[in-house]
Every structure is written in structure tokens, then in C-alpha cells.
Design brief:
Blueprint lengths: L1 E5 L7 H10 L3 E4 L17 E10 L4 E5 L7 E4 L6 E5 L12 E7 L1 H10 E5 L4
Parallel strand pairs: 2-3
Antiparallel strand pairs: 1-7, 2-5, 3-4, 3-8, 5-6, 6-7
Length: 127
């Protein structure tokens, strides 16, 4: 388990500036985005791509959420060999860079597989 936190005086994006480089893995981030939101972060070794759409299933039902209808804040590693899941309290938006907050990350393949399977559409980084 890893815990990441930042103060309101540390004006950075939690996921691209702290979490991805410290976990040494690229992430998909599902957060509530309203303007001015941050685009997918594609500039570094470890990318953070925004999740646009998720789909969850039970034995009898299927649920679909667009990022505009989902207020959760989580990230999941892209790489199954580093199965990280992070649950936090900051969105990927410019105003959030001026807020304090954090995320708790757990390395667990079973939990990771449930989260990664929910990811359906991504704001992809250009190749």
C-alpha cells in the first residue's frame, strides 16, 4: 500500500506529478472533469490517460457511466504486472491543483482486474 498526499500550496496534478512517477507505471484516471479539466498527460515516461466511459456488470444488470455522470476519483495502472488501484479525493482539473488532497494505492491483482475491466473508453495519448 502507498499513500500520496499534497497540500494546497503544492500546485501539481496528483496523478501525473506524484502517483504515476512514484509507482513507476502509467495510469488510467477516472475523475469528474469540468472545465478547466486536464487533458490526458502524455509527456513523460509514465502517462496518465483520462477515462471517458466505464461499464460495470452484475449477474443481471449492466451499468454505464460517462465521466460527466460519475463523481468518483480513482486510478488504475495500465500494466497488469504492476496491478495498482488508487482511490482518492482529487479530480484531474486545473482548480484541483490548488487544493490539498490525496489518494491511497493498493497493489492487488484481483481488485485491479475488476477496475481495469470497467474501463471502456479512454482519452488516449497520441502514439
Amino acid at each position: 500500500m502507498r499513500i500520496f498526499a499534497k497540500s494546497s500550496s503544492y500546485h501539481v496534478d496528483l496523478y501525473s506529478d506524484l502517483v504515476a512517477p512514484n509507482l513507476t507505471t502509467s495510469l488510467y484516471a477516472e475523475t469528474w472533469r469540468r472545465k478547466p479539466f486536464l487533458p490526458s498527460y502524455c509527456s513523460d515516461t509514465y502517462q496518465v490517460e483520462n477515462v471517458d466511459y466505464i461499464s460495470l456488470s452484475t449477474a443481471t444488470e449492466r451499468f454505464h457511466f460517462n465521466y460527466t455522470n460519475d463523481h468518483s476519483k480513482w486510478a488504475v495502472s495500465k500494466d497488469w504486472t504492476e496491478p495498482w488501484v488508487c482511490i482518492g479525493d482529487l479530480n484531474r482539473a486545473e482548480p484541483q491543483m490548488r487544493r490539498g488532497g490525496g489518494t491511497v494505492c493498493l497493489r492487488n491483482y484481483i481488485i485491479w482486474s475488476n477496475f481495469i475491466n470497467a474501463v471502456h473508453n479512454i482519452e488516449k495519448c497520441p502514439n
